């Protein structure tokens, strides 16, 4: 049970933080990985070395998801070099930290292009490539359910649009047995979290609030996300689709006090 032996997976944003932990988990379950990244060649190479210790045929794919051709090429190359594609995880993220009322239009649209556009273009390319009974997974956030932090307002808009695409894809790809789901994350200890919340010096305050409001009284770990993601990629999860599953320690249903 819960095996991914022989499966081929592409993770957009798979070389650090939650993305790398998901890659390592899928590799331990038997999958071979294509890890997409946009910058930092050295960090990506280090991540690949970790994954290859478990799944030796895994590879790196550098692509800017704001660029349509690079995004389409990423999906095609993953399928070609892995001999097919069974799993796609959209974890890559990029955003401006300006509020909706102050963000410049070009910064707003760049965030939409990389996140919403990257997911849409990947899905279009996957439609003719991913195997029947495949798995598509979106990593989103729990802030799409409520007001986000001041520095993640634009990203919240992008993630809400991506979750809408997810529901449509579930029905478009469902007749082939392909499931499409998302994980709504709370605050995790990652470089992205520190960047988004560190600009207004609110990170430490948010960590304390997270620990207090969580039903489990702790911060989430990348492995908490990876375990749920791994399950959703298995055959046993074949009847779960079109869903946003909160992986946030209960914060999304907690009293705001």
Instruction: Give the fraction of residues assigned to helices.
Output: 40-55%
pLDDT below 50 for ≥5 consecutive residues: which ranges? Answer: none
Count of alpha and pi helical runs: 8
In whole angstroms, the N-to-C terminal distance is 41 Å
Structural class: alpha/beta
Order of helices and strands: EHEHEHEHEHEHHHE
Q: What is the CATH topology assignment?
A: Rossmann fold
Strand content: 5-15%
Average pLDDT reading: 92
What are the salient characteristics of this protein?
about 260 residues, Rossmann fold, 8 helices, about 45% helix, about 15% strand, globular
Walkthrough of the structure:
- With 257 residues, the chain is an alpha/beta fold.
- The protein has one domain: NAD(P)-binding Rossmann-like Domain (Rossmann fold), CATH 3.40.50.
- Helix content is 44%, strand content 14%.
- The protein has 8 helices and 7 strands, in the order βαβαβαβαβαβαααβ.
- The protein has helices spanning 17-28, 41-52, 68-82, 105-127, 153-173, 191-198, 203-213, 222-232; strands at 8-12, 32-37, 59-62, 87-90, 135-141, 179-185, 244-247.
- A 7-stranded parallel sheet has the order 3-2-1-4-5-6-7, with helices on both faces.
- Helix 4 (105-127) packs parallel to helix 5.
- The longest helix is centred in the middle third of the chain and has 23 residues, at 105-127.
- The protein is globular, with a radius of gyration of 17 Å.
- 46% of the residues are buried.
- The model has no long low-confidence stretch (mean pLDDT 92).
């Amino acid at each position: 049970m819960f095996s991914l032996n022989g499966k081929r997976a592409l993770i957009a944003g798979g070389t650090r933080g939650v993305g790398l932990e998901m890659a390592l988990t899928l590799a331990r379950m038997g999958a071979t990985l294509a890890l997409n990244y946009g910058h930092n060649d050295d960090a990506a190479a280090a991540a690949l070395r970790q994954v290859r210790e478990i799944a030796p045929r895994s590879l790196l794919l550098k692509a800017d998801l704001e660029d349509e051709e690079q995004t389409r090429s990423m999906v095609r190359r993953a399928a070609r070099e892995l001999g097919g594609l069974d799993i796609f995880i959209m974890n890559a993220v990029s955003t401006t930290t300006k509020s909706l009322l102050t963000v410049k239009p070009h910064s707003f649209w760049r965030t939409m292009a990389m996140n919403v556009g990257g997911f849409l273009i990947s899905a279009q390319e996957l439609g003719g490539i991913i195997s029947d009974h495949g798995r598509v997974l979106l990593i989103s956030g729990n802030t799409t359910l409520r007001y986000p932090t001041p520095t993640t307002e634009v990203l919240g808009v992008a993630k809400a649009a991506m979750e809408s695409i997810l529901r449509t894809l579930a029905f478009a790809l469902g007749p082939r047995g392909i499931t499409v789901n998302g994980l709504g994350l709370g605050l995790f200890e990652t470089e992205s979290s520190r960047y988004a919340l560190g600009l207004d010096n609110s990170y430490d305050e948010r960590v304390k609030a997270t620990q207090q409001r969580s039903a489990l009284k702790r911060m989430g770990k990348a492995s908490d996300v990876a375990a749920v993601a791994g399950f959703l990629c298995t055959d046993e999860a074949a009847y779960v689709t079109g869903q946003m599953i909160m992986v946030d320690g209960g914060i999304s249903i907690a009293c705001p006090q």
